[in-house]
TrEMBL record:
This is Integrase catalytic domain-containing protein. The lineage of its organism: Eukaryota, Fungi, Fungi incertae sedis, Mucoromycota, Mucoromycotina. One of its GO terms (biological process) is DNA integration. One of its GO terms (cellular component) is nucleus. SUPFAM superfamilies: Ribonuclease H-like (SSF53098). Pfam families: rve (PF00665). Residues 2-163 form the Integrase catalytic domain. GO terms for molecular function: nucleic acid binding.
Length: 289
């Protein structure tokens, strides 16, 4: 695979969908679009990830705010390769690169961010996982203003050429006679503003470090399966927050390529149900008995 090497800010963006518990607002998905050079992240909570929803975020939150990308990287999900999306990209003049089941690592930037995002939102949402939608913009801002180990700068500074000015940390005092509208705003800001300061950044840094160690460990381990092995498959479309979900068992029927980076699998309960899966999304299944 050729390395992804942008030559300027805004040239290459990558996108993916993260799946969450349904929020109080009815959202179950987060569309993530990341700029490759700065690592700047754009996030948007969605009730569905159809072509219209993705195209609107791409147009209004990327193109009209940061300029036209030369290329966008995504998987080959139906919403990304539909006729509607092809029309949008052709009209805007954006080329498209698709990752594959065999080599999804070419979109690893967004995949790692998604893990960090889920870990961070799990921390701030606490015992109310359906409130993650409320905190998404603040956690995203905290990520964008935190220094990245890979660049030595925050995505904000690389994207805008300066450090971000943060709101005051100290909470505003709410009096007993404060009117309801002012009280609601005061309580909301007192709860959310601290998330973009040191504690939230520290939690995000810990999440990043934990995910980096996990990713490095997983990447450095060569995993292979034999025909007939029973495995579980990570379910990327219907789970993942606050915990990963797996389906199976599936039966390994053979590798799809010479490198054994992906396998053909068959549902043990329904032999007509066959699929392909990347090796990173598979793990051995052990009978509970």
């Amino acid at each position: 695979m050729k390395p992804i090497t942008p030559t300027r800010i805004g040239e290459i963006w990558a996108t993916d969908i993260a799946v969450f518990t349904e929020s109080k607002q009815g959202n179950r998905f987060v569309l993530v679009i990341m700029e490759y050079l700065s690592k700047w992240a754009v996030t948007c909570a969605l009730k569905s990830y159809d072509t219209d929803s993705i195209a609107q975020v791409l147009l209004y939150d990327v193109v009209l705010k940061y300029g036209l990308p030369s290329r966008i990287i995504s998987d080959n999900g139906s919403s990304y390769i539909s006729d509607g999306m092809t029309m949008v990209l052709d009209r805007l003049g954006i080329s498209r690169s698709l990752t594959s089941v065999e080599h999804p690592q070419s979109d690893g930037l967004v995949e790692r961010f998604n893990r960090t995002l889920k870990a961070s939102l799990s921390i701030v949402a606490g015992q109310e996982p359906n409130t993650w939608c409320e905190y998404l913009p603040f956690v995203t801002f905290a990520y964008n203003t935190a220094k990245q180990a890979s660049t030595g700068f925050s995505p904000f500074k690389i994207m805008h050429g300066r450090d971000a000015e943060l709101p005051l940390f100290n909470p505003v005092k709410i009096q007993e006679n404060t009117r309801p509208n002012a009280r609601n705003w005061g309580q909301f800001l007192n709860r959310t503003i601290p998330m973009i300061h040191s504690k939230a950044l520290e939690n995000i840094k810990k999440a990043q470090d934990s995910q980096a160690k996990y990713y490095d460990k997983k990447s450095s381990t060569v995993k292979s399966f034999n025909n007939g092995d029973l495995v579980l498959r990570r379910n990327r479309k219907t789970g993942g927050f606050p915990k990963e979900r797996w389906s199976g068992p599936w039966i390994i029927t053979g590798p799809t390529n010479y490198e054994h980076t992906a396998y053909n699998i068959t549902d043990k309960k329904n032999f007509k149900n066959t699929s392909k899966a990347n090796v990173g999304d598979l793990r051995l299944w052990y009978s509970p008995s």
